Amino acid sequence: MFSIDVMTALVGIAFGNSYLIETRHAPASYPAYALGIYGLVKLLTAPAGGWLLDRVRVVLTIGLVYASEATGLLIILVTGTANGFLVGVAFLSAGVALAWLLVFHALGDAFEADVRASATAYVGLVSAGATGAGFGLAAVLGQIDFWQSAFLLALGLATGTALLMLRLHPRGGRAGFGRQQPKSAPAPPSIGHRKQLVAGVVIFAHFFAVTATIAVFGPFVLRSLHLSLLRAGILLLPASGAAALSMLLMGRISRHGKRFGQVAALYALGAAAILAAAFVHQAWLFAFVAIPLAVAIGGAQPLLNASVLDVSHANESRGAVLGWLFFAEGLGSVAGPLLIGLVISTASIRDAVLALSLLEGAIVVLALYAARTTRI
Q1: Is the pTM of this model over 0.85?
Q2: DSSP-derived secondary structure letter, 169
Q3: At residue 329, what are phi and psi to the nearest 5 degrees?
Q4: Residue 264 · residue 367 · CB < 8 Å
Q5: Are the C-beta atoms of residues 101 and 49 closer than 8 Å to each other?
Q6: Do 363 and 267 touch, CB atoms closer than 8 A?
Q7: Rounded to an integer, what distance in angstroms lies between the CA atom of residue 371 and that of residue 363?
Q8: At CA 129, angle to CA 127 and CA 131, rounded to 5?
């Protein structure tokens, strides 16, 4: 997971933006195009990749991951153009999406339901550390007069990741059969299509809200509160710490069958915090209000990641279900910023914050409904 996220942050966000603008002198819109292509291809790969996991041996799937990632990086290196970067990012995204499906399969196989939330809490911390490492590497490599260095490093990370993934499934069978249940253990109850749909909608709504929050609070901090990025980062340090602690705490106390109820409670806290933020004009008060919001978002993340594993591993077609849930996650990540951007452009930034608080209130109702109908 660390290797995948370092490579993603390095190529897809940090160094990639610098490469397009400063090295290739591409139009300012190209970094946004690259991120859009990355997100779209990842979104489309998820259901197809899940279907593939149920039917193809793991060693072949890992080979496809590596071939896709290596092809993308080699296209960037060989073409040395902005358009070549856009094409390469598409191949890289397909490989990364399939790699995440494989890793989540292994994670679900390795942990029983009652400890999955704790495991996925550490996933969140690893992801945050990897993203920071990717940005740090990009900053260092940006000082070297050899633009190929970052993409060669990414190629090395792709190679190492493929080798590590082989260790996750040493038998080489299909991903859904990484860990067999003992013969004496009862099979987990299968989750029907309707409950899968309910779980998918909750996961969609969560990622919609998270990405919409990121999209609206940038303009809110810079335009409405008139803060610099540096000052905002310093003010939000307590909130960052609260998010990490909430992630670990909720991961430890969460148990299978109660996750959606806990998500509802966290989102009630988040909705109240965002509603208060819409009326905040002082920087110190914003920093205070951001703490309960961070607790809500940080705590909900491992619960919903564990729910993804619970739903997918309660069905024989684990790959297909996992692919559908990843599709719902990706769709929410794309739709959230688009809708909140539309509200900002047609109304105002503070109106967008108010709309976000209403959205989080709706998620509370949705999560409560899911808790009553789906024991996850």
Answers
A1: no
A2: S
A3: -60, -50
A4: yes
A5: yes
A6: yes
A7: 12
A8: 70
